[in-house]
Amino acid sequence: MIRRVTVVLAALAASLLTPTAAVAAPQGDPVVRTDSGRVRGETTSEGRQFLGIPYARPPVGALRWKEPRPVEPWRGVRDARGFGNTCVQTASWDPGYERPSHTEDCLDLNVYAPEGAARRAVLVWFHGGGLTAGAGRDVVPDTFARQTGTVVVTANYRLGAMGFLATAGLDGETDDGVSGNFGMLDQQAALRWVRANIAGFGGDPGRVTIAGESAGGRSVCTQLASPTARGLFRAAVIQSGAYDDCGAREQRAAVTEGAAFAKKLGCASVACLRAKAPAEILAAQGDFDWGPVAGGDFLPMQPSEALARGAAAGVPVMNGANQDEGRMFAFARFDLNGTPITAEQYPAVMREEFGERALRRYPLSAYPTPTLAYATAFGDRYFACTALRLDDVLAEHGPVHRYEFADRTSPPFASLRNLNTDFDFGATHVNELQYLFRHFGLDSPLNAEQQVLARQMVQYWGSFVRGGVPRADGQPAMPGRSGAVLSLRTASQGGIAVSGTTGREHKCDLWGPETQS
């Protein structure tokens, strides 16, 4: 269901909003030496930034559907003052994505660093987008880096079929006999680049935290479970990423789906697939599920099983979800198309998707509209309760700090604002990002009260990245004990507080693991 609604979102093109950039400062452009060559960045009013630095060789031609290869060194000084290409993907409703990208030369990253040469803690951000869309440039964390005194890296990785195709032929090209994890291996290549080079940008390679939202959060969960990622980071932040219990595809199913994808393209060999143009790949990939594959060296077992066995033992984790996650997905499925759920349709929709018990637990009389009632069940099942369940699994082996973004006054994020709808999104999926970063590089849409909450959230995230318990001035620490969750609200909504009832509020007794299939 998550994938189906994500495909709906990715298919929608919206008006382009013009990003705003930090103002360039008068100092000379900074130059840093990496293991592949020197790069020239830019000094802005927020600090230093280096954009579009390649961390792996372009995965083109014979390197399509291969593990990432090291960058070929260059001579002279490479310009790093503009973003690189976005990876192959369709157009979407997000600002800057009104046209598809057919460019495979996209394995770049961006570095944002405060002034000075101190060995600062490092945050590496993996973007969301359902593993079929998005790019590192979707968040601009320059202000976050300055306010927290950290170095922040955002990275591209291969998406959709380009990043996650598994076939028998591709299995035969790998050392462990399992293909389909190219996008995840890209993320690990970016982390190895950080380990080798971040000291030159003022970062400490021994204090790296990985973080991401939605599919980026799922990526973090997957990397926590991956034995080949051990030693590449010391902590992790998962934002709205525990959906489907961080599940991966089983190899047999992934290969079967890959064969159907190849057939759709009229291909019976890997050579034929590699000869197809990116536009042809995109046209064929929409009906398939794209994500990591379990069974090989990268991911020997399902992430939930690996984490239960202690794969991430000792790694501090900050994990959470948003109070109204399901509202964006419900809107995209129903109201966006002019077909909101009616009171007459509601029982059938709920029974078909969630069953009779859920219909009884989510009576229409308790919600303003049928769509919001459905959205509440959707968010509880796929996000809130899976996040709490992951907390309990991780807490068996290491420290876990729990939050819920619950600011129902939050403005819809930029893609939704473009639609000019009066739908009540509340604290929906993605909305917390604009409290931490400049989302899509846009100026903040937050009012004064929301800006106070944003500063507090930056303090929580920043203190965790620097190696401590998540804290904010004058506020309770983010709890690490079972059953306690930090609720992030504006003052008029009750303010920040520790809650012991989050699981009950989301009816998590109804949404056990057996309901996730």
Structure write-up:
The protein has 517 residues and is an alpha/beta fold. Helix content is 32%, strand content 16%. It is built from 18 helices and 18 strands. It has helices at 2-10, 142-148, 160-164, 168-171, 182-197, 215-225, 251-264, 270-275, 278-285, 303-308, 326-333, 346-354, 356-361, 370-395, 414-417, 433-436, 448-465, 502-505, and strands spanning 31-34, 37-40, 42-44, 47-54, 77-79, 108-113, 120-126, 139-140, 151-155, 203-213, 235-239, 249-250, 293-294, 317-322, 400-405, 438-439, 485-488, 497-499. It has an eleven-stranded mixed beta sheet, with helices on both faces. Strand 10 (203-213), helix 6 (215-225) and strand 11 (235-239) form a beta-alpha-beta unit. Helix 1 crosses helix 11 (326-333). The chain is globular, with a radius of gyration of 22 Å. It starts with a helix and ends in a 12-residue tail after the last helix. 53% of the residues are buried. Mean pLDDT is 93; it is low at 8-26.
Concise structural overview:
With 517 residues, the chain is of the alpha/beta class. The chain contains 18 helices and 18 strands.
What Rg, in angstroms, do the CA atoms define?
Answer: 22 Å
* Overall pLDDT score: 93
* Protein structure class: alpha/beta
Largest sheet: 11 strands, mixed
Question: What is the quaternary state of this protein?
Answer: single chain
Cα(first) to Cα(last) distance is: 10 Å
Q: How many individual helices?
A: 18
Q: What's the helical proportion of residues?
A: 25-40%
